[in-house]
Amino acid sequence: MASRAHLPGSPASIAVLILSFFQGSVCGITFTFTNRCGDTVWPGLLSGSGTPPLETTGFALAPGQSRSLYAPQGWSGRFWGRSGCAFDASGKGSCATGDCGSGEVECRGAGASPPATLAEFTLDGDGGKDFYDVSLVDGYNLPMLVQPAAAGCPDTGCLVDLNERCPDELRADGGRACRSACEAFGSPEYCCNGAYGNPNTCHPSQYSQLFKSACPKSYSYAYDDATSTFTCNHTDYTITFCPESTPSRSKHSSRRPSHEQLEDSVWLASLKASGASSMKITSWWSAPTVFRSGLAIAVATLLGAQIAPDHPVVGLL
Asked: InterPro entries this protein is in (predicted)?
């Protein structure tokens, strides 16, 4: 009969190991970034004040690629996609949209230069819930979808290509991005500051309504909280760039007047509603949680076999 492999350590130390394993699995969550765009996207990451940085602050994501990052309990911060980037072999360079100004692939604590589509998270906030949103307050550069792994938690994002419908006065970077009215004009009524620095005086503009009609779950202006912030109990998240394929466009395509583009936003809203179910991503984004659970069971079974029958494990699983 083959001898049983010897696993060193007392039952007490083994129990501590198992508890540590479960604690590490429960406290943090996994963000998975997926690029479905036709070109490389360089995600940028900025941790909030008082929260630890993630393992990277920026990286390249080729078309079809995914990458997962672990975030500890209580983390807060934002993600965005950079496009039109050119970096040399040493990682030095810049991006046409969403550039963080670091001159490198890594953003190193710098945020996105507007315009940029932002995904914002606060983990384990009030009531122990995660808070998340996709914001167009700083403008738009790429379609983005945020999906919680937990059932019953809503997806959010901006699924359509707003660059196609961007008014001339908001266009930026040769049609690669669309500025917010605040950035374009700097007026207090658009920026919600000064006399307009509260929800009673700052109201949606024709420009924020254009964004909201196309992307009804996204923040369109500073006080758009009621329909744009979502919560979920502790879970993993997938952030997808270009969740549906968008046709390539000419940088010199003709632009239509703002009022016509605002009318077209009704069509964009219907496109979003009719296509939402088909664009639901059900790939392997929940794998990290499933993997941890399966591995925990395997570890417990192996350790139980090691310490039985002298030290039976009761109620381990």
From this structure: Osmotin/thaumatin-like_sf, Thaumatin, Thaumatin_CS
